[in-house]
Amino acid sequence: MADQLQICIVEDSPPIRRLMEVLLTKAGFAVVSFERVDEAIRWLQEHRPLAVLCDLILPDGNGIDVLRAVRAQPGGEQIPVVAVTGLAQEKDQEYYLHHGFDAYLIKPLSTVTFAAQVREILERKEALPPTGS
Q1: Strand-pair partners of 32
Q2: 130 CB-near residues (< 8 Å, 6+ apart)
Q3: Residue 132's pLDDT is what?
Q4: Which listed site, 1, 29, 105, 118, has its alpha carbon 20 to 30 Å from 16?
Q5: Domain 2-124 has what CATH class?
Q6: Half-sphere exposure of 4 (CA within 13 A, CB side)
Q7: How far apart are CA 28 and CA 90, in angstroms?
Q8: Nearest Cα to 19, choosing from 127, 125, 85, 115?
Q9: Phi-psi map region of 132: left, alpha, beta (phi>0 left; psi -120 to 50 alpha)
Q10: Dihedral angle sign, alpha carbons of residues 61, 83, 93, 76
Q11: Torsion angle of C-alpha atoms 47, 51, 56, 60, degrees rounded to 10
């Protein structure tokens, strides 16, 4: 299926969304991205991505709305959903991880480590086979 190596990005900031698209594409992933929660949820109802990277504060909803949509799909528990946000306090991380996100990445994103962080999250969730050392 074409979705197998596709990562879904939900991010309302065009520069950040574009940065994630470029970094993940260079790392070998196909990427589909959305600015709005409603667009992402419609797409997610028809597709099964490798992972979902989601901002937490969006113009028409929040990351928890996206998380719930993923988890409601058959097999949705196996799809890593990663919060990507500027909310950097430990209490924020604990809150969102407790509510079901698989990982939490803090903005600003590192252009050096972002793709490797995503790959590590995918390997931990067994969405990707581990890379050989």
Answers
A1: 8
A2: 123
A3: 54
A4: 1
A5: alpha beta
A6: 4
A7: 32
A8: 115
A9: beta
A10: positive
A11: -10
Question: Could you tell me the end-to-end alpha-carbon distance of the chain, in angstroms, rounded to an integer?
Answer: 28
- Residue 130 structure tokens: 């581990």
Residue 81 pLDDT class (50, 70, 90 cuts) = very high
| Token reading at 50 | 């490798």
Cβ(8)–Cβ(33) below 8 Å? yes
- pLDDT exceeds 90 at position 55: yes
Residue 133, CA distances (Å) to 3, 6, 130 in order? 27, 24, 9
Q: How many residues make up the chain in this entry?
A: 133
Q: Report the alpha-carbon distance of residue 42 to residue 38 in Å, rounded.
A: 6
Residue entry with tokens 């597709």: 47
For the chain, the domains span: 2-124
Of the candidates 50, 59, 66, 55, the residue with the CA atom closest to the CA atom of residue 19:
55
- One-letter amino acid at 22 equals V
Tokens of 93: 């991380």
